[in-house]
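Subject: Sanity check before I submit

Could someone independently write out the structure tokens for this chain? I want to compare against mine line by line before I put it in a report. The sequence has 158 residues.
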Amino acid sequence: MSKKLIVGWKEWCALDALGLPAIKAKMDTGATTSAIHALYITPLSKTIKGKGSKEWVKFTVYPFKEHRQIHRECLLQVIDRRHVVSSDGGKELRYVVQTQLTIAQQVYNIELTLTNRAPMRFPMLLGREALEQFALVDAGKNYNQGKMSLAAARNLYI
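---
Independent answer below. Compare away.
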């Protein structure tokens, strides 16, 4: 018997370290990496005493397409840069960061690529690399780990 969560094709999750208590994510087993809707992506160099210079990236996340006044400015260390083939077939070099995902009161370390997902329905996509750690996807279900109204999700940001 698997100890993995059974998730629907879309779920509510959280990225607490980024100040995102609720964000809708599409489970995408066709994508290798996960992605989040990020704008104003700005690379920074930061020297850490005894550890040398590290590359960081500053970016803004808009968790709700309909409510642009709700946003979070984030700063994370860059762990990689990867060429990613997007759903439209275009190839894009993206920053990769690592953070913690909370779903069903469980916390998992995941990698996220930063990209403009404005044309997409979901601000976040969870790809195979993240999903294989904890989930089995039931494509016939949605919000299997708990449904939340958009109003309730927005209220978490107040």
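---
OP: Matches mine. For the report I'm noting this point. The chain has one domain: 5-155.
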